[in-house]
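Section 5.1 Outputs to date
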Amino acid sequence: KALEAQLLTPDDTNFFRLPPYLLIHLQRFRLVDGVPTKIARHCKVDLRLGLEESANCALRTVPYELVSAISHYGELPESGSYKALVRHT
């Protein structure tokens, strides 16, 4: 429940001008009794994302397409390895 309370929904955030490229960071560790613990919950990430921006007093949807991701493999944030995944289009 505490994790769900921290999540943003589309109604929580409004942008005036969106950047041409968007970087999203998913926090996959949390402190449990002062110890960093990996969140074991699986995430589903769509390949496409549409965000609304307000331009010239009108709302428009700006499309984004997932082209790469970096995944951490390991139980601690200070150790493990990273794998870069890139779509070839």
